[in-house]
Amino acid sequence: MNRRKTYISAILFLLIAIVLTFLLAIIAVQIPIIKKIDPIGQLPILSPALAAFLMIMLNKKASIKDLNFRKINKHVVYIILAYILFKLIETFIQYLFGNISLNIGENKCFLYSGNQIEFNQYIFKASILTIFFAGFGEEIGWRGFLFNKLKHLPYLEMTLTLNIIWAFWHLPMFIIKNGMGHDNLLISFSLFIIISIEFGILLNYIRIKTNSVFGAVLLHPVANISGWIVIGLFQVNNEFWTQHPNIISILIILPFSIYYYRKGRELYETSMAK
Description:
Layout lengths: L2 H28 L2 H5 L9 H12 L15 H23 L3 E3 L5 E3 L5 E3 H32 L4 H15 L1 H6 L8 H26 L3 H20 E3 L2 H4 L4 H26 L2
Antiparallel strand pairs: 1-4, 2-3
Helix pairs in contact: 1-3, 1-6, 3-5, 4-9, 4-11, 5-6, 5-9, 6-8, 8-9, 8-11
């Protein structure tokens, strides 16, 4: 596939995923039982996986095997531990700067249904569900389908294209949620593009290293769950520096991203791009 067709296919995939996101959001609102099945409101996140299956069905040359459902190995554990290390460093620095403080009092969360729930119960339910939604729902689309569409491109071009498209899939959510906690939507989304590229490098690396989508399926939910745990255990004192995305997170994850970019590029150039 030439470069022009590659980009047309990638943009078409993004547009289908966005349309499906809105359709799933409408379904979640209109069908009451969905709130019981999906109490944390993540049904729209299934859209990348559904878009991938749809495009495979419409292309006679494509196959489910193209999504690379292969077994995982120890390298998945290593990169998950690396991400947890990043999150611990970030949390410590935020605490040191006074941007967050320990929340000793009772902490309750609200489910999508409107019911209030204890924080530890929320984390348990959200963790199970986010593996299905953010893990399989997103990564089957991004590191499964779209990665295969782009993998003949040079590594830098593939990395930027995939992760920028992934970031732009989130744009409607930023608009609906009015900047995801930041006052300025442009600044908020610009920061999100940067951190999507950085975190996407880790996801791409484990996809390349294991030649399987399952590593990304597991790593992606770890990022979501660890963020929820920090929110539950700490009180926010400075929203600008602690809301996702923020400059402190971008600076701290940068060394991890540089390291895994270099390792991923070596693997990609020798074994993936043909």
